[in-house]
UniProtKB/TrEMBL annotation:
<comment type="similarity">
    <text>Belongs to the UTP23/FCF1 family. UTP23 subfamily.</text>
</comment>
<feature type="domain" description="UTP23 sensor motif region">
    <location>
        <begin position="140"/>
        <end position="159"/>
    </location>
</feature>
<dbReference type="InterPro" id="IPR006984">
    <property type="entry name" value="Fcf1/UTP23"/>
</dbReference>
<dbReference type="Pfam" id="PF04900">
    <property type="entry name" value="Fcf1"/>
</dbReference>
<keyword id="KW-0690">Ribosome biogenesis</keyword>
<protein>
    <submittedName>
        <fullName>rRNA-processing protein UTP23 homolog</fullName>
    </submittedName>
</protein>
<keyword id="KW-0698">rRNA processing</keyword>
<feature type="compositionally biased region" description="Basic residues">
    <location>
        <begin position="171"/>
        <end position="184"/>
    </location>
</feature>
<dbReference type="Pfam" id="PF24779">
    <property type="entry name" value="UTP23_sensor"/>
</dbReference>
<dbReference type="InterPro" id="IPR029060">
    <property type="entry name" value="PIN-like_dom_sf"/>
</dbReference>
<feature type="region of interest" description="Disordered">
    <location>
        <begin position="136"/>
        <end position="198"/>
    </location>
</feature>
<keyword id="KW-0539">Nucleus</keyword>
<dbReference type="InterPro" id="IPR057776">
    <property type="entry name" value="UTP23_sensor"/>
</dbReference>
<comment type="function">
    <text>Involved in rRNA-processing and ribosome biogenesis.</text>
</comment>
Length: 198
């Protein structure tokens, strides 16, 4: 008598859209359900494939599968521990446990197998006793390395301005290049020497 939620996937809604007017009523009902995230977000698959992927790996979210598809029902019954529902004459019927589920329960009771819930409780007890390190706790406990400030947030060091009052800087500023503007006259070369050279 626990709380239940009706849910569907995007792939199921997409398939109902492609089937057209015949299943328009089913599409309206499915749109009122909670939409769960499936791994086929970018490339949708058929509704039956999507539902099988959602209950894979021992059905961790404890989903019931409600379907009228006989092929899907046969595939669901192959995996133990997945309740199956269908409609007969406007009545929702919960199918009896499959032979695989019955065999699995007997094996758990005999101590040959460990159920999913027992695995989870064992894992929690080990983490509490410190026998197994929880990777999430390890991430939380990681200390930050002590480092310097962010180089991008730091201002650049300003160059020290030279003292303008010092006598050395005044001399440098006052010093000017002295040019001799008086042009020296070069004596003309006699024409005899020019002819001898040429």
């Amino acid at each position: 008598m626990g709380e239940t939620q009706l849910c569907t996937t995007r792939c199921v809604l997409k398939e109902l859209e492609t089937l057209g007017q015949e299943l328009y009523g089913a599409k309206l009902i499915a749109q009122k359900c909670q939409v769960r995230n499936c791994p086929h977000f970018k490339s949708p698959v058929s509704g039956s494939e999507c539902l099988l992927s959602m209950v894979a790996e021992e059905n961790p979210h404890h989903y019931f599968v409600a379907t009228q598809d006989q092929n899907l029902s046969v595939k669901v019954k192959k995996t133990p521990g997945i309740p199956l529902m269908f409609i007969i004459q406007n009545t929702i019927v919960l199918d009896k446990p499959s032979p695989r589920t019955v065999a699995f329960v007997k094996a758990v009771e005999a101590g040959q197998l460990v159920s999913v819930h027992e695995k989870q409780s064992i894992k929690q007890l080990k983490e509490e006793q410190g026998l197994v390190r929880n990777p999430e706790l390890r991430r939380r406990r990681k200390k930050k390395k002590v480092g310097g400030p962010n180089p991008l947030s730091c201002l650049k060091k300003k160059k020290k301005a030279q003292d303008t009052k010092s006598p050395a800087s005044e001399k440098k500023r006052k010093r000017k290049r002295i040019r001799n503007r008086s042009s020296r006259k070069v004596p003309p070369v006699p024409s005899e020497q020019q002819g001898a050279e040429g």
